[in-house]
Specification:
Strand content: 25-35%
Family: Belongs to the bacterial solute-binding protein 8 family.
Subcellular location: Cell envelope
Distance between the termini: 57 Å
Pfam family, one: Peripla_BP_2
CATH architecture of the largest domain: 3-Layer(aba) Sandwich
Oligomer: single chain
Number of helices: 7
Protein name: Fe/B12 periplasmic-binding domain-containing protein
Shape: globular
Keywords: Signal, Transport
Largest sheet: 5 strands, parallel
Length: 237
């Protein structure tokens, strides 16, 4: 849900914008941004756009009521983000691959999206390649949230935020790069904290088992749509 307040100004200590992930259990993300001569308020509900009531007396008040009619639309701008949201049990509404493919949407993800396509149950809109995601396609889709990575999409951030609430993550901590470094933040935005905790517990358990058994253990992970992710350990005897 997006509200534009024309001829308004935004007064913040740092002069930037306001963002808050998960202010309530039903609201995923809130952002307040200055766009030209207006202030844009964007609110993403957990399962659907929230209901809104506005009053101006005695002062301006924006009241938000959560709704749960439809599934939120998530646009993933890079394979790493797609992998993360799938691991959290969220299906993409739009996706940008590593190379540009001449098709409007991924109508057969299993054959069109390498490595991850067999885990996708939707037909995501094709946003082009990850370095230049299609702004036009995003405008037409009207996603509830856009998720990308800071190193690749920082320059387009000001344009992306005009379309929908946009979050850019970084999977590097210190000198270590790993996809789990930003899984918690992505989970908070999507309201999937429990799924993130399960993933992190599974990774910790896997690392411990590998340390104890070394090459004597074989590990398989099953990704099942609408169900949790299962890890199977087979011990060679």
């Amino acid at each position: 849900m997006r509200i534009d307040l024309f001829n308004a100004s935004l007064a913040l200590p740092d002069g930037g914008e306001f963002q808050q992930a998960n202010p309530t259990e039903e609201i995923v993300f809130v952002s307040v941004t200055r766009v030209g001569n207006l202030v844009r308020v964007a609110i993403t509900g957990l399962d659907a756009p929230p209901g809104v009531e506005v009053s101006i007396s005695p002062q301006f008040v924006l009241s938000v009521t959560p709704s749960s009619d439809t599934v939120a639309k998530v646009a993933a701008l890079i394979p790493h983000i797609l992998d993360s949201i799938l691991a959290l049990g969220v299906q993409p509404a739009a996706y940008a691959e590593t190379v540009r493919l001449n098709l409007p949407r991924f109508d057969n993800p299993a054959t069109q999206i390498p490595h991850l396509g067999n885990r996708i149950t939707t037909q995501p809109v094709n946003l082009g390649d990850r370095q230049n995601p299609s702004l036009e396609a995003l405008v037409q889709l009207k996603p509830d949230v856009i998720i990308g990575e800071r190193w690749l999409h920082q320059d387009e951030y000001h344009l992306l935020t005009k379309i929908a609430p946009t979050l850019l993550f970084d999977d590097t901590k210190g000198e270590k790069q790993h996809w789990t470094n930003d899984i918690t933040g992505i989970a908070q935005v999507l309201g999937r904290e429990d799924a993130a905790q399960n993933i992190n517990r599974s990774i910790s358990a896997t690392a411990s088992i590998r340390q104890n058994f070394g090459n004597d253990i074989r590990i398989f992970t099953l990704f099942m749509p609408y169900y949790p992710t299962f890890t199977i350990f087979l011990l060679r005897t």
